[in-house]
Amino acid sequence: MPQSKTPDIQFHMATLSADMAGGQVHPFPGFTMSVCQLRPESRGYVRIASPDPLVPPKMMANYLSTQHDRDTSVAAVKFARKLAQTGPLKGLIERELKPDNPQSDEDLLQFCRNNGATIFHPTGTCQMGPDHQANAVLDSKLRVRGVSGLRVVDCSAMPTVPSGNTNWPAVMLGEKASDLILSEQN
After folding, report:
1. CB–CB of 170/154 below 8 Å?
2. Pairing of strands 9-14, 32-37
3. Can you tell me the distance from the alpha carbon of 151 to that of 132, in angstroms, rounded to the nearest whole number?
4. Are residues 22 and 101 in the same domain?
5. Has residue 70 got a pLDDT over 80?
6. Of 42, 71, 102, 128, which residue is 20 to 30 A from 158 by alpha carbon distance?
7. Residue ending a domain, choose from 115, 141, 173
8. What are phi and psi of 47, to 5 degrees?
9. 1 part of a folded domain
10. What is the pLDDT of residue 160?
11. Is the alpha carbon torsion for 123, 129, 133, 137 positive or negative?
């Protein structure tokens, strides 16, 4: 977005053509451009559906539920298209497969709704936070509130999605947890 002070999308370019990351590769030459919103505001949930542990939980991703996220997603697709029209790429592209030429913001938003995915970075389902925060499952030392001897040390503890890949923040969280555990042993 033009008003952003820091990058608000991460741009990916794959040297193959597929409908989505990890999907079946198309039987023709091509490449895939995709964008990932770095700081989405939309929030979903995971809830226990039954006392039976074999019953899957209820999950609602709630993607694109804020105007900011919708605007950013549409702007990101427009950016990818603009990049595809630059000199180095334009002559190599025979046609756009997806979103297959929708022009209006509404059409681009519908494309985002129909084709968007997590890109493997869900976070915050067990977030840490202060005692007064209603959704904070964990305290500031990653301990599960109300359960003795249990901590959560993965991306679910993060209150928001980091603006980038989750690997290094997860490693950092593990290092911090080991420091916290060791300090309690002394």
Report:
1. yes
2. antiparallel
3. 19
4. yes
5. yes
6. 71
7. 115
8. -130, 145
9. no
10. 82
11. positive
Of the three residues 85, 115, 145, the one that is the final residue of a domain is 115
Cβ distance 64 to 109 under 8 Å?
yes
> 42 to each of 15, 82, 173, how far by Cα in Å?
30, 26, 23
Distance CA 33, CA 11 (A): 8
Residue 167 has pLDDT above 80, yes or no: yes
Among the options 12, 26, 68, 121, which is catalytic? 121
Element (H, E) at 178: helix 167-185
CATH of residue 28:
3.30.560.10
Separation CA 185–CA 168 (nearest Å) = 26
- Across the range 64-78, mean pLDDT stands at 96
Residue 95 and residue 25 in one domain: yes
For residue 87, pLDDT over 80 is answered with: yes
Q: What percent of the chain has pLDDT over 90?
A: 54
Domain extent for 157 = 121-186
**Judgement on whether residues 21 and 93 belong to the same structural domain of the protein:** yes
Residues with Cβ within 8 Å of residue 49, at least 6 apart in sequence? 55, 56, 57, 58
How open is the CA angle 84-85-89, to the nearest 5 degrees?
A: 60
Record the pTM.
Answer: 0.82
Q: What token pair was written down for 33?
A: 């451009």
Q: Over 80: is that where the pLDDT of 100 sits?
A: no
Specify whether 162 is located in the same domain as 93. Answer: no
The answer to whether 121 is a known catalytic residue is: yes
